[in-house]
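Lab notebook, bench 4. We co-purified these components, and the gel suggests they stay together. Before we commit to crystallization screens, I want a quick structural picture of the whole thing.
Request: model the full complex, all chains together.
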Amino acid sequence: VNPVIVAIDGPSGTGKSSTSRAVADKLGLRYLDTGAMYRAITWWMLSNGVDVNDPVAVADQAGKPTLVSGTDPTAPTITVDGLDAAGPIRTQEVTAAVSAVSAVPEVRARLVELQRAAVATATDGIVVEGRDIGTTVLPAAGVKIFLTASAEARAARRSGELNGSVSVAATQAALIQRDAADSSRVASPLAKAADAIEVDTTELTLTQVIENIVALVEEKR
Ligand code: C5P
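Here is the predicted assembly.
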């Protein structure tokens, strides 16, 4: 059998990460979280005093950090210059800055190269989650999924992950702003590939979403 490549794209708060990890684990595939890579390079920029709102400065530094992603779906890891970035990339500071950094073409070119290299080494196949995987990074992926959910459902889920430390209304406003930035940027925006299967998760449990996607992949394998 050919290694199956599964692209899972969609806006924030649709359950992409939980879904992608579980699908990879159930099918014995590797797992790559490309959002974590954009967050990691953003964290490095902030830590090194780069003005994240200056695309020229960001482009200039884009080649500097060394990023390494571990692709075990049960324990994904990410390091930047050898430092564990898993915790720091989830802060609100990084979340607020990541859309500006990820809009810079030099950043995308660098990370897309790393993403394709990770896929090339995944001889048993891989699930890759992000925003532009089906459209730009892996246009030949065997299975393409576009996950959606209502803005209310997405905000409620994300606010649950933050243990209620931020109000649902504030979370929803931040999500909408980030998705608008990600969808309207010039360099490979968040978009559904023409041949992607859209799965609306608003009324589905996580288990149902996982089972639907596992079935879709098994059909294609
Ligand atoms: O998936 P996550 O919310 O962690 O992604 C963080 C950010 O990384 C997104 O808001 C987007 O700006 C960027 N991103 C991207 N392309 C991808 C994955 C993530 O631009 N393939």
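The mean pLDDT is 95. Worth comparing against the SEC data before the next meeting. The chain has nine helices and eight strands.
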